[in-house]
Amino acid sequence: MPGMTNPNPVLAPDDAQLVDTLEACNQRGGRMLSLIDLLEAGTVDLPLAAYLAALAQRGTAMLVGALPGGAGKTTVMGAVLNFLPRTTAIAVLDSPRALANAASDLDCGRRCYLAHEIGPGRYYAYVWGAAAQTLFALAKAGHLIASNLHADTLEQTYDQLCGDNGVPRAHVLAVALKLFISIDGRQRRVARVYESDGRDEQLVWQHTAAGFVRVAPSRLVMRSDEACLQAVLADLCARGVRTLAAVRAALAPMPEKRAVATKP
User: Fold this and answer.
1) In terms of DSSP bridges, do strands 177-184 and 62-65 run parallel, antiparallel, or are they unpaired?
2) Positive or negative, the Cα torsion across 17, 231, 80, 51?
3) Cα Dmax for the chain
4) pLDDT band at residue 82 using 50, 70 and 90 as cut-offs
5) Structural domains of the chain, with CATH
6) DSSP labels for 1-69?
7) Mean pLDDT, rounded, of the chain
8) Which of 58, 104, 192, 244 has its CA 20 to 30 A from that of 52?
9) How far apart (Å, rounded) are the C-alpha atoms in residues 212 and 235?
10) Beta partners for 202?
11) What's the rounded Cα separation, in Å, for the pair 110 and 91?
């Protein structure tokens, strides 16, 4: 029955560590929201949510952008990363040593390197300048990375990363998934989703007056994978599964596979 699922299940150690890492991203109090929460809030619809979850399960570097603060960038990022395989740990880039260790990592897919935000200042797990260059070099090498930035468009994203930070354009193109959030009053939505194949960016999803519209087929994930995750998410909604921990626990029986970073 909806609402009867344990919101704080006992998780396997690897799952517990992943959920704890995602919950630690919370900057605004309360709990981090799950993809089920975002579905109910209208931030995504079911097909788009399934697409994002399928990409996370396959291993895809991602950026989440929105110009204003408080748009939900970290929330969306965390909700999607909750679908990483159990064989993939999240490593937070919170120090120069963490960046150096990441740069020497030759085992792509074992870790998703997380920077809380691409921005200047001495804030926890922020990267800028040389640190941002290291982050995107990881993506170019085939590692999973995830981060947020203050940008509403692809043009703003490339201006900030390539212009302000000196990141090579090819390294930005190595981040296969880029999504942007819009705010209309109190309503937050994933407004546009782009895929990169390493050569160019392709708009795949867009929010319009008609709702969430698929503009082009995915070059990264199969429709069968999306259909599987769509059924899973619909079931979680029906059973009242809400928290990151409860969603993570519900995914445990699914067939497991090691993430291999989706190479553009």
Assistant:
1) parallel
2) positive
3) 52
4) very high
5) 13-247 (3.40.50.300)
6) -TT-S-SS----HHHHHHHHHHHTT--SSS----HHHHHHHTSS-HHHHHHHHHHHHH---EEEE-SST
7) 91
8) 104
9) 21
10) 195
11) 10
Question: Taking a C-beta distance cutoff of 8 angstroms, is the pair 143, 261 a contact?
Answer: yes
β partners of residue 63: 147, 178
What's the pLDDT score for residue 233?
97
CA contacts within 13 A on the Cβ side of 3 = 0
254 vs 133: CA distance, rounded Å: 36
Q: Tell which residue, 258, 199, 181, 225, has the closest CA to residue 55.
A: 225
**Collapsed DSSP state (helix, strand, coil) of residue 213:** strand
Q: Is the full-model pTM beyond 0.70?
A: yes
* Pairing verdict, β 201-208 and 211-214: antiparallel
The identity of residue 154, as a single letter, is: L
Residue with tokens 């782009």: 194
4, pLDDT greater than 60: no
Q: Is 185 exposed, middle or buried (0-12, 13-18, 19+ CB in 10 A)?
A: exposed
Nearest to 247 by CA among 70, 59, 40: 40
pLDDT digits (tens, 9 = 90+) for 153-181: 999 999 999 999 999 999 999 999 999 99
